[in-house]
DNA sequence: GCCGTTTTCGGCCCGACTGTTTTCAGTCG
């Protein structure tokens, strides 16, 4: 059983317990266990066999026993019993924003309503408004939320690369509002999660209420969901929900920290603070005994007051970051300035848009020491892939450019297609003449896990392949990752000393954060490439850096953080 | 249900907004 299936079951249990009105801390325990497993580098199945379940944070005696039953029998009696207590479909009520466990339970119990369609009818004929603590206004709000939910369901979370420009547009529109300062995207956007559910923006203001008014009047705002004196939520032009929060200037440090999350990180932080006699909020830190609040202009100062090193936003996910910050043992995460080159770039020789020399100059402008030109192989006809003859011509052109261009070195290369049977789309003798060879899957993506795993490992075993590009082939919001035993791929890459790519292309971000974390743990070499098809796309690098940081990557883990003199040793080995 | 530099039992993050209430429950992040 896959970890993701286990996570789903634990989350379901938490939902059902909520519906029952169980102790909220019990439901939270299941949620916490689910989240731990979601971020786990290893298979739960393996941990069951080795009797190491209790090492998972948030898994105690009871949940460990349930997981063991689930893995060994494929079923969980407790889960089945729980489900039997509620009509099927009541879970969908819970998914509507504004309907929590209390409301869902009352609606299902009193009105015998369990689907969105039935709920809509019950609202329209006035039955919902008559329930205790409900009213006509609440009922109508729920009706609105159902509509929004249906719409959102079809749009889902959107890729980071689409959300960031939308946030930039809002920030731009708010520039120049009098008395507004420190305007910053926060939330999952600032943590560089691969997809974004809503945009969080935080700022500080002389008069927050006035700025809130300015915000809800922006042309980019389509619909205002709620609005108070320090906070507003709205649906913006692209359908994304945006939460905007304002505080006093001198609370910016705590406000930004609070708004950045993650939720679990903040909970962990506040629990720890409580043990120190401190109470944290977006306004600052209160010494509980003295009842005195201190404010912080920067996040650094906010963390320091708690005896913690600064924790970068990308790793604020409720893992071990607080414990390590306390001991001064956080890694020094890789940053953009560590990157010395880009080893996956397409030119106009295949489906790129610009000639090699222009790409090289653009890379030099970004401070790089080298790039690799890695156009497609012939098998990708649609991308004007190169055959042997054109590849030879291209190599000659690169040699010419290298002779006359200073300050940047161009490596020859190829993004060679890994065919369905695992062989490569170019003879070994030709690959041997190249500096960098990327192997990549572009076809037959529906293969089963065994076939796909063997296919990729066969490419890793080819002595001329240096890097596997976008290893799981996912396209965010469009195409799921291929079925592949990623642990086996990591093991092969480690054994043959091959690098796995972190594709910085914002629609890919592949490997993803949790894979990166695991690969790095196993000592697999990583490389952050943009897969740029035009100059401007060299700037995608920041998405790759953010993703690598989420996987706790340091410069030493990353091939293209090596200077020109060193990087070539990797493929000459 | 989990967990432990004051605890193996008694706690479990903190505050904004809304709508329904006569002081607060429910929901969200």
Report on the structure:
- The protein is an alpha/beta fold and 573 residues long.
- Helices cover 44% and strands 14% of the residues.
- Helix 1 packs antiparallel against helix 2, helix 13 crosses helix 15 (299-305) and helix 22 (513-521) packs across helix 23 (541-550).
- The radius of gyration is 26 Å and the shape is globular.
- The structure holds one DNA strand of 29 nucleotides.
Distance from N terminus to C terminus (CA atoms, Å) equals: 39 Å
**Beta-strand percentage range:** 5-15%
Q: Enumerate how many helices there are, as a single number.
A: 24
User: What's the mean pLDDT score?
Assistant: 93
Kindly list the characteristics that best describe this protein.
14% strand, alpha/beta, 7-stranded parallel β-sheet, 5-stranded mixed β-sheet, 44% helix, 573 residues, 24 helices, DNA-binding
Task: Characterize this entry briefly.
With 573 residues, this protein is of the alpha/beta class.
Q: Can you lay out the helices and strands and say which pair or pack?
A:
Blueprint: H1 3-20, H2 24-38, H3 44-49, H4 61-73, H5 77-84, H6 90-95, H7 101-111, H8 116-124, H9 136-155, E1 158-159, H10 160-174, E2 180-185, H11 187-190, E3 195-196, E4 198-205, H12 208-216, E5 221-227, E6 231-236, E7 241-247, H13 252-260, H14 263-275, E8 278-281, E9 284-287, E10 292-294, H15 299-305, H16 321-327, E11 341-345, H17 356-365, E12 370-373, H18 388-404, E13 409-417, H19 428-431, E14 436-440, H20 449-461, E15 467-468, H21 486-495, E16 499-503, H22 513-521, E17 526-529, H23 541-550, H24 564-572
Parallel strand pairs: 4-7, 11-12, 12-13, 13-14, 14-15, 15-16, 16-17
Antiparallel strand pairs: 1-3, 2-4, 5-6, 6-7, 8-9, 9-10
The protein binds one DNA strand of 29 nucleotides through helix 2, helix 4, helix 7, helix 9 and helix 14.
